[in-house]
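User: Quick sanity check before I run a bigger batch. Here is a single chain. Can you write out its predicted 3D structure?
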Amino acid sequence: MKSSKRILLSLIIISFFMILAAGSSIGDEEAEPEKVFEPAAATEEPGALTEEPAITSEEIGALDDAIDDLDIEEIEQKFAIILQDSFGDAAKVEFVEAEKTYYITPSDPSVLEEIINALEGDAYAVASWESFTESLVELSRVMIDLLPGYWLEIKNPETPELSLLIIKDGEVIYDVLKDEDM
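Assistant: Done. Predicted structure follows.
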Protein backbone atom coordinates (compact mmCIF):
# COMPACT_ATOMS: atom_id res chain seq x y z
CA MET A 1 0.00 0.00 0.00
CA LYS A 2 2.91 2.40 0.69
CA SER A 3 4.06 1.82 -2.90
CA SER A 4 0.69 3.05 -4.11
CA LYS A 5 1.10 6.20 -2.03
CA ARG A 6 4.54 6.84 -3.54
CA ILE A 7 3.15 6.32 -7.03
CA LEU A 8 0.28 8.70 -6.31
CA LEU A 9 2.70 11.32 -5.00
CA SER A 10 4.81 10.96 -8.12
CA LEU A 11 1.75 11.41 -10.29
CA ILE A 12 0.76 14.53 -8.38
CA ILE A 13 4.21 16.02 -8.96
CA ILE A 14 4.06 15.17 -12.65
CA SER A 15 0.58 16.63 -13.00
CA PHE A 16 1.63 19.88 -11.37
CA PHE A 17 4.60 20.36 -13.67
CA MET A 18 2.59 19.36 -16.73
CA ILE A 19 0.22 22.16 -15.82
CA LEU A 20 3.09 24.61 -15.33
CA ALA A 21 4.71 23.69 -18.63
CA ALA A 22 1.47 23.74 -20.63
CA GLY A 23 1.44 26.75 -22.86
CA SER A 24 -2.14 27.86 -23.09
CA SER A 25 -3.54 31.04 -24.46
CA ILE A 26 -7.07 31.82 -23.48
CA GLY A 27 -9.23 34.22 -25.42
CA ASP A 28 -11.94 36.43 -24.01
CA GLU A 29 -14.69 34.12 -25.18
CA GLU A 30 -17.43 33.23 -22.74
CA ALA A 31 -17.31 29.56 -23.76
CA GLU A 32 -17.10 26.91 -21.06
CA PRO A 33 -13.46 26.28 -20.09
CA GLU A 34 -11.77 23.30 -21.70
CA LYS A 35 -11.10 20.47 -19.21
CA VAL A 36 -7.59 19.12 -18.86
CA PHE A 37 -7.17 15.58 -17.60
CA GLU A 38 -4.55 14.14 -15.32
CA PRO A 39 -4.00 10.65 -13.92
CA ALA A 40 -6.04 9.87 -10.83
CA ALA A 41 -5.10 7.61 -7.94
CA ALA A 42 -3.51 4.29 -8.81
CA THR A 43 -5.63 1.22 -8.24
CA GLU A 44 -4.42 -1.96 -6.58
CA GLU A 45 -2.90 -3.05 -9.89
CA PRO A 46 0.44 -1.34 -10.59
CA GLY A 47 0.23 1.02 -13.52
CA ALA A 48 -3.59 0.99 -13.72
CA LEU A 49 -4.87 4.56 -13.86
CA THR A 50 -8.15 6.29 -14.43
CA GLU A 51 -8.66 9.82 -15.67
CA GLU A 52 -10.74 12.58 -14.09
CA PRO A 53 -11.00 16.34 -14.63
CA ALA A 54 -8.19 18.09 -12.82
CA ILE A 55 -8.01 21.75 -13.75
CA THR A 56 -9.56 24.08 -16.32
CA SER A 57 -7.61 25.76 -19.09
CA GLU A 58 -8.32 29.12 -17.41
CA GLU A 59 -6.56 27.90 -14.27
CA ILE A 60 -3.60 26.75 -16.38
CA GLY A 61 -3.40 30.23 -17.89
CA ALA A 62 -3.25 31.74 -14.41
CA LEU A 63 -0.46 29.32 -13.43
CA ASP A 64 1.46 30.15 -16.62
CA ASP A 65 1.24 33.86 -15.80
CA ALA A 66 2.55 33.21 -12.27
CA ILE A 67 5.50 31.17 -13.61
CA ASP A 68 6.36 33.85 -16.19
CA ASP A 69 6.99 36.27 -13.30
CA LEU A 70 9.56 33.96 -11.60
CA ASP A 71 13.29 33.87 -12.22
CA ILE A 72 15.22 30.59 -12.53
CA GLU A 73 16.31 30.54 -8.88
CA GLU A 74 12.71 30.89 -7.72
CA ILE A 75 11.60 28.08 -10.04
CA GLU A 76 14.43 25.86 -8.75
CA GLN A 77 13.46 26.51 -5.14
CA LYS A 78 9.73 26.11 -5.73
CA PHE A 79 10.40 22.79 -7.44
CA ALA A 80 12.51 21.64 -4.46
CA ILE A 81 9.70 22.61 -2.07
CA ILE A 82 7.08 20.84 -4.20
CA LEU A 83 9.22 17.70 -4.36
CA GLN A 84 9.78 17.72 -0.59
CA ASP A 85 6.10 18.31 0.12
CA SER A 86 5.17 15.50 -2.25
CA PHE A 87 7.56 13.00 -0.69
CA GLY A 88 6.81 14.20 2.84
CA ASP A 89 8.54 12.13 5.49
CA ALA A 90 9.25 9.33 2.99
CA ALA A 91 12.30 11.13 1.54
CA LYS A 92 14.62 14.10 1.98
CA VAL A 93 15.00 16.39 -1.05
CA GLU A 94 18.14 18.46 -1.49
CA PHE A 95 18.87 20.77 -4.42
CA VAL A 96 22.50 21.44 -5.37
CA GLU A 97 22.45 24.48 -7.65
CA ALA A 98 26.01 24.06 -8.96
CA GLU A 99 25.18 20.53 -10.15
CA LYS A 100 21.63 21.34 -11.30
CA THR A 101 20.58 18.24 -9.36
CA TYR A 102 17.68 17.37 -7.10
CA TYR A 103 18.89 14.62 -4.76
CA ILE A 104 16.10 12.53 -3.26
CA THR A 105 17.13 10.28 -0.39
CA PRO A 106 14.46 7.89 0.88
CA SER A 107 14.08 8.04 4.66
CA ASP A 108 11.29 5.49 5.01
CA PRO A 109 12.79 2.02 5.68
CA SER A 110 10.00 0.40 3.67
CA VAL A 111 11.30 2.12 0.52
CA LEU A 112 14.67 0.39 0.76
CA GLU A 113 12.90 -2.87 1.59
CA GLU A 114 10.77 -2.46 -1.55
CA ILE A 115 13.87 -1.84 -3.66
CA ILE A 116 15.58 -4.90 -2.21
CA ASN A 117 12.46 -6.94 -3.01
CA ALA A 118 12.56 -5.61 -6.58
CA LEU A 119 16.24 -6.54 -6.91
CA GLU A 120 15.34 -10.05 -5.73
CA GLY A 121 12.73 -10.27 -8.50
CA ASP A 122 9.48 -9.76 -6.57
CA ALA A 123 7.03 -9.00 -9.40
CA TYR A 124 4.94 -6.47 -7.48
CA ALA A 125 8.03 -4.61 -6.23
CA VAL A 126 9.52 -4.55 -9.74
CA ALA A 127 6.24 -3.18 -11.17
CA SER A 128 6.09 -0.59 -8.39
CA TRP A 129 9.69 0.53 -9.06
CA GLU A 130 9.09 0.67 -12.81
CA SER A 131 5.95 2.75 -12.28
CA PHE A 132 7.82 5.10 -9.93
CA THR A 133 10.68 5.36 -12.44
CA GLU A 134 8.31 6.14 -15.31
CA SER A 135 6.63 8.82 -13.19
CA LEU A 136 9.97 10.50 -12.56
CA VAL A 137 10.93 10.18 -16.24
CA GLU A 138 7.69 11.92 -17.19
CA LEU A 139 8.32 14.60 -14.58
CA SER A 140 11.80 15.13 -16.01
CA ARG A 141 10.36 15.43 -19.54
CA VAL A 142 7.94 18.09 -18.35
CA MET A 143 10.74 19.89 -16.49
CA ILE A 144 12.67 20.38 -19.75
CA ASP A 145 10.61 23.49 -20.60
CA LEU A 146 11.23 25.12 -17.21
CA LEU A 147 14.52 23.58 -16.09
CA PRO A 148 16.41 22.05 -19.04
CA GLY A 149 19.53 20.06 -18.16
CA TYR A 150 18.49 19.34 -14.57
CA TRP A 151 18.95 15.97 -12.91
CA LEU A 152 16.71 13.91 -10.59
CA GLU A 153 18.74 11.46 -8.55
CA ILE A 154 17.44 8.92 -6.05
CA LYS A 155 20.20 8.18 -3.55
CA ASN A 156 20.75 4.93 -1.66
CA PRO A 157 19.87 5.79 1.97
CA GLU A 158 22.24 3.12 3.30
CA THR A 159 25.16 4.23 1.13
CA PRO A 160 24.47 7.85 0.06
CA GLU A 161 27.38 7.99 -2.38
CA LEU A 162 25.55 5.37 -4.48
CA SER A 163 22.55 6.16 -6.62
CA LEU A 164 19.49 4.02 -7.23
CA LEU A 165 18.10 6.04 -10.12
CA ILE A 166 19.42 8.95 -12.18
CA ILE A 167 17.28 10.82 -14.72
CA LYS A 168 18.08 13.83 -16.90
CA ASP A 169 15.90 15.53 -19.52
CA GLY A 170 13.42 12.65 -19.62
CA GLU A 171 16.05 9.93 -20.03
CA VAL A 172 17.06 7.28 -17.51
CA ILE A 173 20.83 7.54 -17.09
CA TYR A 174 21.08 4.84 -14.43
CA ASP A 175 18.57 2.41 -12.91
CA VAL A 176 19.76 0.02 -10.20
CA LEU A 177 17.27 -2.61 -11.40
CA LYS A 178 18.81 -2.56 -14.87
CA ASP A 179 22.41 -2.63 -13.59
CA GLU A 180 23.97 -5.85 -14.85
CA ASP A 181 26.60 -5.76 -12.08
CA MET A 182 23.95 -6.06 -9.36
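The first helix runs from residue 2 to 21.

User: Great, the batch can go ahead then.
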